[in-house]
């Protein structure tokens, strides 16, 4: 309880959050009704029962199903506003949000609808509550690089509202090298770069993300620990890792929270952070993630403070804004 209060009071940034993964079953049901979209569940309880996954792909199949209820600008606004309210409740001061435009444009929802709804909620949170944000467009790696290029083209009219690009979805078999050209183009546009790597994929995918995509951060990065030379490199370069403890447990990346690599990451000098990934699907927002991993690994207050500091130093905030939080 004391630890919970300490975590709750810590100012934090969240750097790994898929906005579509914050769709709570209640909102999914409401939007399904409002939009006349059929969903394969009879009740909110049935939805929650379906959230038992044995790997990443199991989850992704349900995640892409769930987002089919999102059709209008208002839907994306309500989705984002609901997440931001939860983040504020956890004393999150800054968020960097991923979105998956290809999950929407392939269903006939326009890029402009998606971005208008999300940014309306982000702007409102900034104006009303001083909650700052960045927006990161993720390419779905199970699709082709040509599809990613077309998505970046569709984003060009909105590029002033987009801070970076990322790479998500099914990792194994879709290495970072597949997206080298589109990441180079995003870099030339001045966008920040991140990629999921080393969640299920091997340490070589983390190296590819650094060497070929030239990413500024690694999302997850767990399996980096299998390669001591890579660990030294990540530590020396101060590469931020956006770690997601409850996600790792729910997707069987770790067998048990007590076996979570976060303590080993900190001991190796890695700039690890704690994030929620897809909180509606994995059972908790930021504070629940700090709590679960701190309880399992018996993290000290100093370690919790270090994790929260890493979340600001690893963020894409301007130096002066970042320093306000440190
Ligand atoms: N899309 C949403 N969450 C993801 C995750 N944890 N890994 C890969 N793709 C995702
Ligand atoms: Zn993720």
TrEMBL record:
Q: Name one GO cellular component term.
A: cytosol
Q: Mind listing the UniProt keywords for this protein, alphabetically?
A: Hydrolase, Metal-binding, Nucleotide metabolism, Zinc
**A GO BP annotation:** adenine catabolic process
Q: Which Pfam families match?
A: A_deaminase
Q: Which residues cross the membrane?
A: none
Binding residues for substrate: 278
Q: Which residues form the active site?
A: 199
Pinpoint the Adenosine deaminase domain residues: 11-326
The protein's site described by Important for catalytic activity is found at 220
Q: Which superkingdom, per the lineage? A: Bacteria
Q: Which residues bind Zn(2+)?
A: 16, 18, 196, 277
Q: Which reaction does it catalyse?
A: adenine + H2O + H(+) = hypoxanthine + NH4(+)
Provide the cofactor list for this protein.
Answer: Zn(2+)
GO MF terms held by the record: adenine deaminase activity; zinc ion binding
Zinc in keyword set: yes
Q: How is the cofactor bound?
A: Binds 1 zinc ion per subunit.
- The kind of enzyme this is, by top-level EC class, is hydrolase
Q: What EC number(s) does the entry state?
A: 3.5.4.2
Q: What's its job?
A: Catalyzes the hydrolytic deamination of adenine to hypoxanthine. Plays an important role in the purine salvage pathway and in nitrogen catabolism.
Listed NCBIfam families: aden_deam (TIGR01430), PRK09358.1-6 (NF006850)
Could you say which protein family the record assigns here?
A: Belongs to the metallo-dependent hydrolases superfamily. Adenosine and AMP deaminases family. Adenine deaminase type 2 subfamily.
Q: Which HAMAP family match?
A: Adenine_deaminase
The protein in question is named: Adenine deaminase
Q: Which organism is it from?
A: Sphingopyxis flava
